[in-house]
Amino acid sequence: MELTIIVPVYNEANNLARLENELSKFIMEALVPTKVLFINDGSQDNSLEIIQSICRKHERFSHLSFDKNYGLSTALKAGFDNINTALTGYIDADLQTHPEDFNLLLKHIKSYDLITGNRAHRKDSFLKRITSTSANFFRRIFTGDGMEDTGCPLKIIKTEYAKKIPMFKGFHRFLPALVLLQNGTVKQIPVPHYPRIADTTSFGLLNRSIAIIDCFFFLWVKYRYINYTITTASN
Predict the structure, then answer these.
(1) What does the domain layout of the chain look like in residue ranges?
(2) What value, to the nearest 5°, has the Cα angle with vertex 159 and ends 21 and 161?
(3) Within 13 Å and on the Cβ side, how many CA atoms surround 139?
(4) Can you tell me whether residue 229 is helix, strand or coil?
(5) What is the pLDDT of residues 101-149, one digit of tens each?
(6) Burial group, residue 34, by CB count within 10 angstroms (0-12, 13-18, 19+)
(7) Do 64 and 90 touch, CB atoms closer than 8 A?
(8) CA atoms of 47 and 42, how far apart (whole Å)
(9) Which fold has domain 3-222?
(10) At what angle do helices 16-29 and 47-57 cross, to 10 degrees?
């Protein structure tokens, strides 16, 4: 396997059958050999039971399950910590971005260290779009990463960079900037966006307000992050 797709799951029972189908189809069409890692983030519905059933049916599907809900940043870190493929992908379970579009990102990953989607024609409510646009605007000012849509849940990262990302709660919003801290390279690619069909998002206006506060913490990390290159060494 060359690519592991992380799928954080929190109370997405009504989406998982569709997700199983779409991920299975993508595995057959992927540009590189691919497997899937579900991260059950303390779901309170029957998501875990469905995930376990999916993993029993498909040898390329596996899962981790938390004892309680820790949030998206923790779920991603657990994924990064447990992946052994050269590439790490990330997609949300709600299928507002589509697994088939990983191939759009894979076409560029040899030249960059992180490729992120940029959701075109977003199918979200007006309030969600305007608050997301505002949060992305402030993040670009603070990070200088040039990314228009860091919140897009469709990304591929070279795993060597993913494992060195300093993860804190809320830092899933800063993945491109955190790769740049390692002197990595990033690129954004337009991808389609789809309406949520089942269940409800757990991400609201309060989360985006906190995201702006996180920008100040990111600056603290940015100016204290340790990064170095060894030019010569002796035994």
Answers:
(1) 3-222
(2) 140
(3) 27
(4) coil
(5) 999 999 999 999 999 999 876 665 555 666 666 666 767 777 778 787 8
(6) buried
(7) no
(8) 9
(9) Spore Coat Polysaccharide Biosynthesis Protein SpsA; Chain A (3.90.550)
(10) 30
